[in-house]
Amino acid sequence: MQNDLMDQQAIHHLIDADMQKVNEEILAQLNSSDVPLINQLGIYIIQGGGKRIRPTIALLAARAVNYQGELMPTCATFIEFIHTASLLHDDVVDESELRRGKPTANATFGNAASVLVGDFIYTRAFQLMAKLKSLKMLQIMSDATNVLAEGEVQQLMNVHDPDTTEQNYLKVIYRKTARLFEVSAQSAAVLSNASAEIELALQSYGRYVGTAFQLIDDILDYSANAVELGKNIGDDLAEGKPTLPLLHAMQHGSPNQRELIRNAILEGGKRDIIDDVLAIMAEHRSLDYAMARAKQEAQKAVDAIAILPENIYKQALISLAYLSVDRTY
Ligand code: FPP
Ligand code: MG
Ligand code: MG
């Protein structure tokens, strides 16, 4: 199976026409208001790149189960809107200055504008959802978005807490990231009236890919090249956010190393201790540990969709799962 893996370009090529409709719908929605800031800030964040991974999963899943309707681009659009709104809020909460290689919307337009345009995009997502006239879609999407917010609150409570457990961390990343991936894939099954088995398979696929994706995000915060990543490195440490690599290094470190990391989490690691932390992580192979966990999740995602009919779109979903743990940005 591994031999037939597709690269990113080949995957995207399969859904080119669908994604073009998504991009058109995104622009039309952002242009719909006569309040100029909505359009300016909305275009700024949404045209600023982004991997469009959630819409990609939704569109591929729909093709994989042979969905015949016309609703998928709208569905992929509101999923990307929920994600975009959450990023606008996230960069305010995290006081982030760089995203997608550009100053964040909050750095450019200010916190108030970011939060409020985030609210516009977020509520527009639900207006689009209502157009689908599917109560089940409304249910799964509103549940997922609520859990997303819940995960962020839970994470807020873990910040500066060096006693956070790995289990707690995994629960946070399920809530804040994997859940939206889960419903992105699931939506294809729901809109196609697929069997419960197919729906569960796609849901599980999304959940595992989303978990892998966030594990990699948390690794890249320590290991990436900032220019390539388009975000600042070391933000999690600076915020005192106990992600998996840091928790692993703390658990396996010597008493002195443990103390250094505990203090970094408690106080927020000053930028000048990142090299010490990286050295501790290297000694205990903490990034390798987190990477191995991510790879396990990707494999679980692939296994979850074994029951899907064999076709090129399923192959693309499989390839995407592996690629999500093999990325540098
Ligand atoms: C990125 O995580 C952010 C999220 C996964 C979700 C953020 C969600 C909220 C702030 C809740 C508000 C939600 C809505 C729908 C309005 P990160 O900060 O770990 O990653 P980063 O490195 O990309 O910033
Ligand atoms: Mg953030
Ligand atoms: Mg955050």
Automatic annotation (TrEMBL):
Pfam families from the UniProt entry: polyprenyl_synt (PF00348)
Entry keyword Protein biosynthesis: no
PROSITE patterns documented for this protein: POLYPRENYL_SYNTHASE_1, POLYPRENYL_SYNTHASE_2
EC number(s) on file: 2.5.1.90
NCBIfam families tied to this protein: PRK10888.1
Purpose: Supplies octaprenyl diphosphate, the precursor for the side chain of the isoprenoid quinones ubiquinone and menaquinone.
Protein name, per record: Octaprenyl diphosphate synthase
Classification lineage: Bacteria, Pseudomonadati, Pseudomonadota, Gammaproteobacteria, Pasteurellales
